[in-house]
From TrEMBL:
The keyword Kinase does not apply. Substrate binds at residues 176, 208, 269-272. The lineage of its organism: Bacteria, Bacillati, Actinomycetota, Actinomycetes, Bifidobacteriales. The gene is trmB. S-adenosyl-L-methionine binds at residues 98, 123, 150, 172. This is tRNA (guanine-N(7)-)-methyltransferase.
Amino acid sequence: MTEPNAAIEQAQNIQEATDALEATQTTAPSHPIHKVLSFVRRSARLDPRLQRAWDNYTDTYLLDIAAGNARLDVREGFALSKEYIQSTWGNSNPLIVEIGTGQGENVVAAAAAHPETNFLALEVYDPGVAHTLLLAGKQGLTNIRIAQVNAAELFKVTEPSTIAEVWTFFPDPWPKKKHHKRRIVQPELAGNIHNALADDGVWRIATDIEDYALHVHEVMDHLDGWQNIGTITASLPLEHVGKGNADMAADMPHADFTESERFSGRVLTNFEKKGLEAGRVIHDFTYQAVTLR
């Protein structure tokens, strides 16, 4: 979950400049091929409270599965398996993975409400990880862990039928058209999540950006192995709009799409509350993994 702000805007502009530079290269780069990421790294100092949480709770909650040296790739040889879940959580309870947990409000509330379920929070930004550590540590929760890794890379090394549900709530919208390839909801990730989910497992998605809602439908609605099990109808424009042109969408041709009622298991975070106060419509999606045709 990523809230638009000046820091994100600056980081995305830096990424845009990097992309432009790479596009002008005529010889093979000496470094590894640049990966398309759904996030940008930005530094942030931890305030004393979050630093204490980091110092006190990382050994309990933060998984040691990253490649190291500030890299967010999964370390070589690691696999998220049922055996790893048993050894890490100490049980074989169902596992729910949230991609982009932000400040951790939702995933920690869910873990507190459902001690019979295991939770894995995926977040790349230090302050978000630290705040999640703080919330979980203050309650002494035992059924939640945090991983500071690239979600797309983790799902590549997740063994089949390992996860009960995947949640992706309010991902970075990447509003510029040329950045839509960076949106986290993509066919490759959907395929890897499908492989990771247990029978009838679901991927729950939510966004308050209309253009992103259209993107989700375009990627997921006709993708083999997924069934949209929503029960309500939402009207959306049939074309994408670029950053700063959202008002143009109202005059575009629209069509009806199937979406879901608000997921009752998602708490009303400060981020979602701000979106509602700004008049944005929340779009919820529930896609169930079915047998590939």
